[in-house]
Amino acid sequence: MDAIHTEQLTVSYGGNPIIKDLNIAIPKGKITVFIGSNGCGKSTLLRSLARLLKPTEGSVVIDGQLISKWPTKELAKKLAILPQGPIAPESLTVLNLVKQGRYPYQSWLNQWSKQDEEMVKTALAMTKLEDLADRPVDALSGGQRQRAWIAMILAQGSDTILLDEPTTYLDLAHQVDILDLLYDLNKREKRTIVMVLHDINLACRYAHHIVSVKNGRVYSQGTPEDTITAKLIEDVFGLESHVMTDPFFGTPLCIPSGKGRILPTAKEFVEKNLVKTY
């Protein structure tokens, strides 16, 4: 069953199509990752799925209904998006940021409730931010700040979460920390997660489903094992590479080639490099 799918989706800027006749299906309860070169249309596609961009042609469907037909607050209960590089107002605390996630549930008749309080408390606990709840967001480290934004999304309680490059500007340790958090969330609560990532190997490690985008069109979609090949890396990224099986995780592992260098075989690579780490 699909959480979201598109039908002949076309999105344009200034009359120029960025996404063209796109048909994709996002599996429900799985992690989907969009990959592709810079400017290929990944972020545009993500924003279109969240109704932040209006299609020129075609449509986005969520739970069997056109996304354009959903009332804003009802859609926010179904779907949440974290854009790339969000900025919090100066001096806003972590707690108050996370509380913003409960906005779709507020009205004149329904004010702040015990359920709202519990959702915020749970989101802070899941992201390990309880001790930082009273700290200003702009005083946090990059990894902590990203966890605070994710906590806000978790408090929203949406079934589907969209994240545009959630690991950008983070060092490797913090990238893995954020992706582990999202992986655990998916495994525990079966929430559908859709991300744009640049690191192919991390995408393969964490995704159940990968959509590769080239020049505004889908090049391939499927499991990492079925889609990530040396030919895909060359066609989509213009880079020669060797794709082998990661000996630790069993997922595809992409080894890019340098200019004028001959790639070792998988056996040679393991013997010369990975065995030494045991």
Automatic annotation (TrEMBL):
Cell location: Cell membrane
Domain ABC transporter: 4-240
Highest taxon in the source lineage: Bacteria
Matching PANTHER family: IRON(3+)-HYDROXAMATE IMPORT ATP-BINDING PROTEIN FHUC (PTHR42771)
Protein's name according to its UniProt entry: ABC transporter ATP-binding protein
A single MF term (Gene Ontology): ATP binding
Alphabetical keyword list: ATP-binding, Cell membrane, Ion transport, Iron, Iron transport, Membrane, Nucleotide-binding, Transport
Gene Ontology, cellular component aspect: plasma membrane
Biological process, per Gene Ontology: iron ion transport
